[in-house]
Structure formats: C-alpha cells, structure tokens
Amino acid sequence: MTGPCSRPVVLCLSGHDPSGGAGLQADIEALIAQGCHAAPTVTALTVQDTVDVSDFRVLDREWVLAQANAVIADLPVAAVKLGMLGSVEMVETVLEIMQKLPGVPLVCDPVLRAGGGGALGKNEVGYAMRERLMPVAAIATPNLPEARILAELPEGTADECAEKLLPYVRHLLITGGHGEETEVVNRLYSRDGSRHEFLCERLPGSYHGSGCTLASALSGRLALGEALPSAVRTALDYTWRTLRDAEAPGRGQYIPRRLPLELN
C-alpha cells in the first residue's frame, strides 16, 4: 500500500457513452494517460453507439450536485473538465459547482453534437454555455461546427468565430479536421491578441470521442501545472497519436486508443 495520491485530481462533468468511445470513459482513459486521477461525475445518460446518438437523458441537478460535492469534500481537485450537459439547468448546476472551486481551471468542451451528427442538447444550451460558462472557463475547445453554433455564424471561419467568442472566454482552441484540407490546423486564440497554430497530418476515417480525448488531456496537463500554450500542444500531440492508433470495434467510427496496449 502506498501513501497519499500524488496524481492531480480532475473532476469530470460529462455524459456516459455506453459504446465507450466518448464521454466519461474517454475522460478517464485520457487522464490516466496524463498521469492524473479522474473523478467522473455523470451529467447525462445517452443511447449511442459508434455510429450516432439516438437519445439522451439529463440527470436531475440534485444527483449531479451530490456527486460533485462528494468529490470536492474528499479530494483536492486540481482542474475541471466539462463535457456534455444537455440542458440549461445543467449549465447553472456547473456554475454552482465552480463557485466551490475558486481558482481551479475549467476546460469547457462544448459538446453540442455527437460525432455522427446527432444533437446532444437544444440550441439554447449552446447559448447558455457561451453566456454563462465560457466566462468562468480557462479555455473552451470547440471544433469548428461547434464554434459556429456558439458564435451563431453558420458559415463562419475559425477567425470570424473567434472574434465573436473571445469576449466570452480568455482562451479559445478551435480544432480543425472538418473540411477537406490535407493538413489539420488547430487554432489557439487568446483575448490578449496572441494566436498559435498547431498543424498535424490529416488521418483517414472519422473518430468517435476525439474532442473528449483532447479536452480531457488538456485538463490533465493544466492540473499538472503545464502552461497553457504548451499544454495545448502536448494535448494535441497526444490526441493525434490516439487517432493514429485508433481501432474500429463496431459498425461506425473509429475509437481512439487512449491507453498503451499493455493497459487495455
């Protein structure tokens, strides 16, 4: 038996994906790979597979608060990773939780669509996340389609979406890979005007849980104390490797391999 846990604790507020490709399982695996301890708090239950999502149910706020409060009272939370919320009420629930964690970085992954395209919340959820949650987040990590929803710019470029969203959040990582480009461009924008671009090779196929993997890895790097631009690069590099080594256990998208084979 060893002594106290030396691994940073990351509170994960995400939905459950029974296929294991996205959601809390993605959070747990990605955080283990960073050397962190995941504290998973379930916000929603989904009916989905590697093809798409067909239904979901958001948990009662009392259940979510009870889970999070139990973790906060017992474990030293070093970062918070936010995934699927599914309702405006859950946005308010997360805000109540964050009031108990002053100074703890929040990574906001605005999960509004499943990888197969299915909706994971009504449009007002995106609006509430932009207006209420993004201002308390250290960074938001939408892909370009999600950024367009949040910015209310259906055809907007990453730069146009960033201009609309930066008044709400200090740092914004808009991930690429949703067009026809041969090289994926991930863009980190900061409110102070600084900007970084991270390029990676485009991989064939489509992937289930890539956004969850990235946001979880990033929250882990921040929990470990890594500075934000460096943490973004580390998380992107890790995520690309999980996609390169992905497997297709079902009839739909590939699932990232987030842990080494000997740990699978």
Written overview of the protein:
There is one protein chain. It is built from 8 helices and 9 strands. The chain has one domain (9-245): Ribokinase (UDP-N-acetylmuramoyl-L-alanine:D-glutamate ligase, 3-Layer(aba) Sandwich), CATH 3.40.1190.20. It has helices at 23-34, 61-74, 88-98, 123-133, 144-151, 158-165, 210-223, 228-244; strands at 9-16, 37-48, 53-58, 77-82, 106-108, 139-140, 171-174, 183-190, 195-201. It is of the alpha/beta class. Helix 4 (123-133) links the parallel strand 5 and strand 6. The strands form 2 sheets. A 6-stranded mixed β-sheet has the order 3-2-1-4-5-6, with helices on both faces. A 3-stranded antiparallel β-sheet has the order 7-8-9, with helices on both faces. Its EC number is 2.7.1.49. Residues 17-253 form the Pyridoxamine kinase/Phosphomethylpyrimidine kinase domain. GO terms for molecular function: hydroxymethylpyrimidine kinase activity; phosphomethylpyrimidine kinase activity. Keywords: Kinase, Transferase. It holds the Pfam family Phos_pyr_kin.
